[in-house]
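hiii, so i know i said id send this last week but things got crazy w the move. better late than never?? heres the sequnce for the chain we talked about at the cafe, plus the structure i predicted for it. fair warning i was half asleep when i ran it
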Amino acid sequence: MSSSKPLALLGGKPRIDRSEWPSWPPRGPAIIAALATVANKDEWGIHSAAVSHFETAFAHHHDAEFGLAMANGTVALYCALAAAGVGRGDEVIVPAYTFMATAAAVLQCGATPVLADIDPLTFNLDPAAAAAAISGKTRAVMPVHIGGNPADMEAFKQLGEKHNIVIIEDAAQAPGAIYGGKKVGALGNVGCFSFQSSKNMTAGEGGILLTNDESLYRRAFELYNCGRTTTGPWYEHLSPGLNLRLSAFQAAILQVQLQRLEADADKREANGRYLEEQLNEIDGLQCAGRYQQTGRNAYHLLIFTYDAKAFSGLPKAKFLEALMAEGVVATDGYRPLQSLPFIKHDGGGLPVTDRLCRDQVWLRQFELLAGRPLLERAVQAIRDIQEQAHLLV
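okay and structure toks below
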Protein backbone atom coordinates (compact mmCIF):
# COMPACT_ATOMS: atom_id res chain seq x y z
CA MET A 1 0.00 0.00 0.00
CA SER A 2 1.54 3.28 -1.11
CA SER A 3 1.33 6.27 1.17
CA SER A 4 0.97 9.84 -0.04
CA LYS A 5 1.56 11.25 3.46
CA PRO A 6 5.08 12.53 4.11
CA LEU A 7 6.62 11.38 7.37
CA ALA A 8 6.45 13.66 10.40
CA LEU A 9 10.26 13.86 10.35
CA LEU A 10 9.97 15.17 6.78
CA GLY A 11 7.41 17.85 7.64
CA GLY A 12 4.23 15.80 7.49
CA LYS A 13 1.52 15.47 10.11
CA PRO A 14 1.92 12.59 12.59
CA ARG A 15 -0.30 9.57 12.02
CA ILE A 16 -1.29 9.63 15.70
CA ASP A 17 -1.60 12.31 18.35
CA ARG A 18 -0.01 10.91 21.53
CA SER A 19 -3.10 11.96 23.51
CA GLU A 20 -5.13 9.38 21.59
CA TRP A 21 -3.46 6.47 23.39
CA PRO A 22 -5.14 5.14 26.57
CA SER A 23 -3.82 7.00 29.61
CA TRP A 24 -1.64 5.17 32.12
CA PRO A 25 -1.76 4.64 35.05
CA PRO A 26 -5.51 3.93 35.13
CA ARG A 27 -7.65 6.45 36.95
CA GLY A 28 -11.30 6.79 37.84
CA PRO A 29 -13.94 7.02 40.55
CA ALA A 30 -13.47 3.42 41.71
CA ILE A 31 -9.83 4.04 42.64
CA ILE A 32 -10.68 7.31 44.40
CA ALA A 33 -13.44 5.54 46.35
CA ALA A 34 -11.11 2.69 47.33
CA LEU A 35 -8.51 5.14 48.63
CA ALA A 36 -11.15 7.05 50.57
CA THR A 37 -12.34 3.82 52.19
CA VAL A 38 -8.83 3.09 53.46
CA ALA A 39 -8.29 6.69 54.55
CA ASN A 40 -11.38 6.48 56.75
CA LYS A 41 -10.10 3.39 58.56
CA ASP A 42 -7.48 3.13 61.29
CA GLU A 43 -5.35 0.47 59.58
CA TRP A 44 -3.29 2.02 56.78
CA GLY A 45 -0.72 -0.74 56.79
CA ILE A 46 -0.27 -3.36 59.50
CA HIS A 47 -3.41 -5.43 60.13
CA SER A 48 -5.18 -3.82 57.18
CA ALA A 49 -8.06 -5.83 55.74
CA ALA A 50 -7.30 -4.21 52.38
CA VAL A 51 -3.85 -5.82 52.27
CA SER A 52 -4.95 -9.29 53.36
CA HIS A 53 -7.92 -9.19 50.99
CA PHE A 54 -5.71 -8.28 48.05
CA GLU A 55 -3.10 -10.91 48.92
CA THR A 56 -5.74 -13.63 48.95
CA ALA A 57 -7.60 -12.40 45.88
CA PHE A 58 -4.51 -11.98 43.70
CA ALA A 59 -3.09 -15.34 44.80
CA HIS A 60 -6.31 -17.22 44.09
CA HIS A 61 -6.70 -15.43 40.75
CA HIS A 62 -3.28 -16.82 39.81
CA ASP A 63 -3.95 -20.38 41.00
CA ALA A 64 -1.88 -19.98 44.16
CA GLU A 65 -2.79 -20.69 47.77
CA PHE A 66 -0.53 -18.11 49.44
CA GLY A 67 0.37 -14.51 48.67
CA LEU A 68 2.49 -11.87 50.39
CA ALA A 69 2.14 -8.30 49.07
CA MET A 70 5.39 -6.37 49.28
CA ALA A 71 6.95 -2.95 48.76
CA ASN A 72 8.12 -3.77 45.22
CA GLY A 73 8.91 -6.61 42.86
CA THR A 74 12.64 -6.58 43.57
CA VAL A 75 12.26 -7.26 47.29
CA ALA A 76 9.68 -9.93 46.45
CA LEU A 77 12.34 -11.68 44.35
CA TYR A 78 14.87 -11.29 47.17
CA CYS A 79 12.38 -12.71 49.67
CA ALA A 80 11.55 -15.66 47.40
CA LEU A 81 15.22 -16.48 46.94
CA ALA A 82 16.04 -16.18 50.64
CA ALA A 83 12.97 -18.20 51.67
CA ALA A 84 14.07 -20.91 49.24
CA GLY A 85 17.40 -21.08 51.06
CA VAL A 86 19.55 -19.31 48.48
CA GLY A 87 22.61 -17.75 50.11
CA ARG A 88 26.33 -17.15 50.00
CA GLY A 89 28.19 -19.59 47.79
CA ASP A 90 25.09 -20.60 45.82
CA GLU A 91 24.47 -20.00 42.13
CA VAL A 92 21.17 -19.02 40.51
CA ILE A 93 20.71 -19.33 36.76
CA VAL A 94 19.03 -16.30 35.19
CA PRO A 95 18.46 -15.17 31.59
CA ALA A 96 20.96 -12.71 30.19
CA TYR A 97 18.00 -10.77 28.75
CA THR A 98 15.98 -9.32 31.62
CA PHE A 99 15.71 -6.27 33.86
CA MET A 100 18.65 -5.94 36.23
CA ALA A 101 16.48 -6.69 39.30
CA THR A 102 16.43 -10.38 38.40
CA ALA A 103 20.19 -10.59 38.94
CA ALA A 104 20.37 -7.90 41.64
CA ALA A 105 18.03 -9.88 43.91
CA VAL A 106 20.39 -12.85 43.63
CA LEU A 107 23.37 -10.67 44.54
CA GLN A 108 21.51 -9.27 47.56
CA CYS A 109 21.25 -12.83 48.87
CA GLY A 110 25.03 -13.18 48.60
CA ALA A 111 24.65 -15.67 45.75
CA THR A 112 26.01 -15.51 42.21
CA PRO A 113 23.78 -14.98 39.17
CA VAL A 114 24.85 -17.29 36.34
CA LEU A 115 23.78 -16.00 32.95
CA ALA A 116 22.30 -18.28 30.31
CA ASP A 117 21.18 -17.43 26.79
CA ILE A 118 17.61 -17.04 25.58
CA ASP A 119 15.35 -18.87 23.15
CA PRO A 120 15.40 -17.06 19.76
CA LEU A 121 11.67 -17.85 19.35
CA THR A 122 10.25 -16.33 22.54
CA PHE A 123 13.22 -14.36 23.99
CA ASN A 124 12.73 -16.24 27.27
CA LEU A 125 15.41 -18.20 29.13
CA ASP A 126 16.35 -21.22 27.00
CA PRO A 127 15.81 -24.42 29.05
CA ALA A 128 18.68 -26.15 27.24
CA ALA A 129 21.04 -23.25 28.00
CA ALA A 130 19.91 -23.27 31.63
CA ALA A 131 20.51 -27.03 31.89
CA ALA A 132 24.01 -26.60 30.47
CA ALA A 133 24.79 -23.96 33.12
CA ILE A 134 23.89 -26.15 36.11
CA SER A 135 26.78 -26.90 38.45
CA GLY A 136 27.22 -28.36 41.90
CA LYS A 137 26.57 -24.88 43.31
CA THR A 138 23.27 -24.31 41.52
CA ARG A 139 20.45 -23.75 44.03
CA ALA A 140 17.77 -22.24 41.76
CA VAL A 141 16.78 -21.34 38.23
CA MET A 142 14.84 -18.13 37.67
CA PRO A 143 12.93 -18.09 34.36
CA VAL A 144 11.50 -14.69 33.47
CA HIS A 145 8.20 -14.35 31.62
CA ILE A 146 9.73 -11.65 29.47
CA GLY A 147 7.32 -8.97 28.32
CA GLY A 148 4.50 -11.05 29.81
CA ASN A 149 5.19 -13.97 27.44
CA PRO A 150 5.29 -17.20 29.50
CA ALA A 151 8.54 -19.12 29.70
CA ASP A 152 8.64 -22.86 29.02
CA MET A 153 7.59 -23.79 32.55
CA GLU A 154 7.05 -27.48 31.83
CA ALA A 155 10.70 -27.79 30.81
CA PHE A 156 11.83 -25.83 33.87
CA LYS A 157 9.73 -27.89 36.27
CA GLN A 158 11.30 -31.05 34.84
CA LEU A 159 14.73 -29.46 35.23
CA GLY A 160 14.01 -28.60 38.85
CA GLU A 161 12.83 -32.11 39.66
CA LYS A 162 15.78 -33.75 37.89
CA HIS A 163 18.43 -31.69 39.68
CA ASN A 164 16.56 -30.98 42.95
CA ILE A 165 16.77 -27.23 42.46
CA VAL A 166 14.19 -24.52 43.09
CA ILE A 167 12.30 -22.90 40.22
CA ILE A 168 11.49 -19.24 40.91
CA GLU A 169 9.29 -17.44 38.38
CA ASP A 170 10.08 -13.79 37.73
CA ALA A 171 6.55 -12.91 36.66
CA ALA A 172 7.04 -9.17 37.15
CA GLN A 173 5.59 -8.41 33.71
CA ALA A 174 3.01 -11.18 33.50
CA PRO A 175 -0.17 -10.74 35.57
CA GLY A 176 -2.92 -12.76 33.95
CA ALA A 177 -0.60 -14.69 31.61
CA ILE A 178 -1.63 -18.32 31.09
CA TYR A 179 0.55 -21.37 30.47
CA GLY A 180 -0.70 -24.96 30.39
CA GLY A 181 -4.20 -23.87 31.37
CA LYS A 182 -3.04 -22.10 34.55
CA LYS A 183 -1.99 -18.59 35.41
CA VAL A 184 1.75 -18.04 35.82
CA GLY A 185 3.24 -17.22 39.22
CA ALA A 186 2.81 -20.53 41.05
CA LEU A 187 3.83 -22.95 38.31
CA GLY A 188 7.26 -23.31 39.90
CA ASN A 189 8.06 -23.38 43.61
CA VAL A 190 7.48 -19.66 44.04
CA GLY A 191 6.87 -16.63 41.83
CA CYS A 192 6.93 -12.84 42.04
CA PHE A 193 5.09 -9.96 40.34
CA SER A 194 5.77 -6.23 40.20
CA PHE A 195 3.32 -3.32 40.45
CA GLN A 196 5.78 -0.60 39.48
CA SER A 197 4.33 2.34 37.55
CA SER A 198 4.75 0.90 34.04
CA LYS A 199 3.28 -2.51 34.85
CA ASN A 200 -0.07 -3.93 33.68
CA MET A 201 -1.31 -3.54 37.26
CA THR A 202 0.25 -0.68 39.18
CA ALA A 203 0.21 1.16 42.48
CA GLY A 204 3.24 3.23 41.58
CA GLU A 205 5.34 0.62 43.38
CA GLY A 206 4.55 -2.74 44.89
CA GLY A 207 5.00 -6.45 44.40
CA ILE A 208 3.70 -9.83 45.51
CA LEU A 209 5.13 -13.29 46.18
CA LEU A 210 3.00 -16.34 45.37
CA THR A 211 3.47 -20.00 46.27
CA ASN A 212 1.57 -23.22 46.92
CA ASP A 213 4.27 -24.41 49.32
CA GLU A 214 3.15 -23.68 52.89
CA SER A 215 6.59 -24.14 54.45
CA LEU A 216 8.14 -21.76 51.93
CA TYR A 217 5.31 -19.29 52.59
CA ARG A 218 6.02 -19.38 56.32
CA ARG A 219 9.73 -18.73 55.80
CA ALA A 220 8.90 -15.86 53.43
CA PHE A 221 6.47 -14.43 56.00
CA GLU A 222 9.24 -14.19 58.60
CA LEU A 223 11.49 -12.37 56.15
CA TYR A 224 8.78 -9.97 55.03
CA ASN A 225 7.31 -9.23 58.48
CA CYS A 226 10.22 -8.49 60.82
CA GLY A 227 10.96 -12.09 61.77
CA ARG A 228 7.44 -12.80 63.01
CA THR A 229 5.64 -16.09 62.47
CA THR A 230 2.12 -16.38 61.10
CA THR A 231 0.75 -17.49 64.48
CA GLY A 232 3.11 -16.15 67.17
CA PRO A 233 2.77 -13.09 69.45
CA TRP A 234 3.32 -9.70 67.79
CA TYR A 235 6.60 -8.95 69.56
CA GLU A 236 8.03 -12.43 69.17
CA HIS A 237 10.74 -12.26 66.50
CA LEU A 238 12.32 -15.58 65.63
CA SER A 239 14.69 -14.28 62.99
CA PRO A 240 16.16 -10.94 61.84
CA GLY A 241 13.54 -10.39 59.18
CA LEU A 242 12.89 -7.19 57.29
CA ASN A 243 9.83 -5.00 56.79
CA LEU A 244 8.90 -5.62 53.15
CA ARG A 245 5.17 -4.97 53.55
CA LEU A 246 2.79 -3.15 51.20
CA SER A 247 0.57 -0.28 52.39
CA ALA A 248 -3.23 -0.47 52.50
CA PHE A 249 -3.50 2.38 50.00
CA GLN A 250 -1.52 0.47 47.41
CA ALA A 251 -3.51 -2.68 48.07
CA ALA A 252 -6.77 -0.80 47.58
CA ILE A 253 -5.65 0.58 44.22
CA LEU A 254 -4.50 -2.86 43.11
CA GLN A 255 -7.73 -4.55 44.19
CA VAL A 256 -9.69 -2.25 41.86
CA GLN A 257 -7.35 -3.12 38.99
CA LEU A 258 -7.56 -6.84 39.75
CA GLN A 259 -11.29 -6.64 39.06
CA ARG A 260 -10.57 -5.48 35.50
CA LEU A 261 -7.48 -7.63 34.92
CA GLU A 262 -9.28 -10.32 32.90
CA ALA A 263 -10.93 -7.83 30.56
CA ASP A 264 -7.69 -5.90 30.08
CA ALA A 265 -5.65 -9.08 29.60
CA ASP A 266 -8.06 -10.38 26.97
CA LYS A 267 -7.91 -7.06 25.11
CA ARG A 268 -4.10 -7.00 25.18
CA GLU A 269 -4.06 -10.60 23.94
CA ALA A 270 -6.38 -9.86 21.01
CA ASN A 271 -4.57 -6.65 20.06
CA GLY A 272 -1.15 -8.23 20.56
CA ARG A 273 -2.00 -11.08 18.20
CA TYR A 274 -3.34 -8.59 15.64
CA LEU A 275 -0.19 -6.47 15.77
CA GLU A 276 2.05 -9.52 15.51
CA GLU A 277 0.21 -10.69 12.41
CA GLN A 278 0.53 -7.27 10.84
CA LEU A 279 4.14 -6.60 11.80
CA ASN A 280 5.34 -10.06 10.76
CA GLU A 281 4.07 -9.27 7.25
CA ILE A 282 6.43 -6.27 7.02
CA ASP A 283 9.80 -7.21 5.60
CA GLY A 284 12.51 -6.74 8.21
CA LEU A 285 10.32 -7.10 11.31
CA GLN A 286 9.83 -10.24 13.42
CA CYS A 287 7.79 -10.47 16.61
CA ALA A 288 8.50 -12.80 19.51
CA GLY A 289 6.78 -16.16 19.22
CA ARG A 290 5.13 -18.20 21.95
CA TYR A 291 5.18 -21.77 23.22
CA GLN A 292 2.37 -24.16 22.32
CA GLN A 293 1.25 -24.34 25.98
CA THR A 294 0.80 -20.55 26.17
CA GLY A 295 -2.86 -19.68 26.47
CA ARG A 296 -2.42 -15.94 26.99
CA ASN A 297 0.48 -13.52 26.75
CA ALA A 298 0.16 -10.66 29.24
CA TYR A 299 1.82 -8.32 26.70
CA HIS A 300 3.50 -5.96 29.10
CA LEU A 301 5.71 -5.49 26.08
CA LEU A 302 5.26 -6.40 22.45
CA ILE A 303 8.83 -7.14 21.36
CA PHE A 304 9.97 -7.33 17.77
CA THR A 305 13.30 -7.26 15.98
CA TYR A 306 14.24 -4.69 13.36
CA ASP A 307 16.45 -5.37 10.34
CA ALA A 308 17.78 -2.10 8.94
CA LYS A 309 18.55 -3.72 5.58
CA ALA A 310 14.81 -3.95 4.85
CA PHE A 311 14.48 -0.21 5.61
CA SER A 312 17.09 1.14 3.17
CA GLY A 313 19.79 0.82 5.83
CA LEU A 314 17.97 3.16 8.23
CA PRO A 315 19.66 2.79 11.65
CA LYS A 316 17.40 1.49 14.41
CA ALA A 317 17.80 4.71 16.42
CA LYS A 318 16.51 6.72 13.46
CA PHE A 319 13.66 4.23 12.95
CA LEU A 320 12.63 4.73 16.58
CA GLU A 321 12.86 8.49 16.20
CA ALA A 322 10.64 8.36 13.11
CA LEU A 323 8.14 6.09 14.82
CA MET A 324 7.92 8.32 17.89
CA ALA A 325 7.46 11.33 15.61
CA GLU A 326 4.46 9.55 14.08
CA GLY A 327 2.95 9.25 17.58
CA VAL A 328 3.74 5.58 18.18
CA VAL A 329 5.39 5.03 21.57
CA ALA A 330 8.27 2.70 20.72
CA THR A 331 11.53 2.31 22.62
CA ASP A 332 14.79 0.44 22.68
CA GLY A 333 15.03 -2.20 25.41
CA TYR A 334 17.44 -3.90 27.78
CA ARG A 335 21.18 -4.06 27.56
CA PRO A 336 22.65 -7.55 28.09
CA LEU A 337 23.16 -8.30 31.76
CA GLN A 338 26.78 -9.25 31.06
CA SER A 339 27.42 -5.62 30.06
CA LEU A 340 26.56 -4.30 33.54
CA PRO A 341 29.56 -3.47 35.74
CA PHE A 342 28.39 -5.48 38.76
CA ILE A 343 27.77 -8.70 36.80
CA LYS A 344 30.59 -11.21 36.42
CA HIS A 345 30.12 -13.55 33.50
CA ASP A 346 32.62 -16.29 32.68
CA GLY A 347 30.30 -18.59 30.78
CA GLY A 348 31.22 -17.69 27.21
CA GLY A 349 29.18 -16.05 24.51
CA LEU A 350 25.48 -15.22 24.68
CA PRO A 351 24.80 -14.68 20.97
CA VAL A 352 21.01 -14.68 20.98
CA THR A 353 20.89 -12.11 23.78
CA ASP A 354 23.51 -9.96 22.05
CA ARG A 355 21.60 -10.07 18.77
CA LEU A 356 18.24 -9.26 20.38
CA CYS A 357 19.66 -6.34 22.36
CA ARG A 358 21.04 -4.93 19.13
CA ASP A 359 17.83 -5.35 17.09
CA GLN A 360 14.97 -5.09 19.64
CA VAL A 361 12.05 -2.65 19.57
CA TRP A 362 9.37 -2.45 22.26
CA LEU A 363 5.74 -1.36 22.15
CA ARG A 364 4.19 -0.72 25.58
CA GLN A 365 1.26 -2.45 27.25
CA PHE A 366 -1.04 0.59 27.36
CA GLU A 367 -0.89 0.80 23.58
CA LEU A 368 -2.45 -2.65 23.44
CA LEU A 369 -5.51 -1.32 25.26
CA ALA A 370 -6.29 0.98 22.31
CA GLY A 371 -9.06 0.49 19.79
CA ARG A 372 -8.31 -1.38 16.59
CA PRO A 373 -8.45 1.71 14.32
CA LEU A 374 -5.63 3.34 16.29
CA LEU A 375 -3.53 0.21 16.00
CA GLU A 376 -4.16 0.11 12.26
CA ARG A 377 -2.76 3.63 12.03
CA ALA A 378 0.29 2.58 14.05
CA VAL A 379 0.95 -0.25 11.60
CA GLN A 380 0.52 2.15 8.69
CA ALA A 381 3.03 4.50 10.30
CA ILE A 382 5.62 1.70 10.17
CA ARG A 383 4.77 1.02 6.53
CA ASP A 384 5.16 4.76 5.82
CA ILE A 385 8.61 4.71 7.40
CA GLN A 386 9.69 1.73 5.35
CA GLU A 387 8.46 3.35 2.13
CA GLN A 388 10.26 6.62 2.83
CA ALA A 389 13.25 5.30 4.78
CA HIS A 390 15.62 6.19 1.93
CA LEU A 391 14.78 9.85 2.54
CA LEU A 392 15.93 9.57 6.17
CA VAL A 393 19.24 7.81 5.64
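btw The chain has two domains: 29-259, 261-391. thought thatd interest u
miss u guys!!
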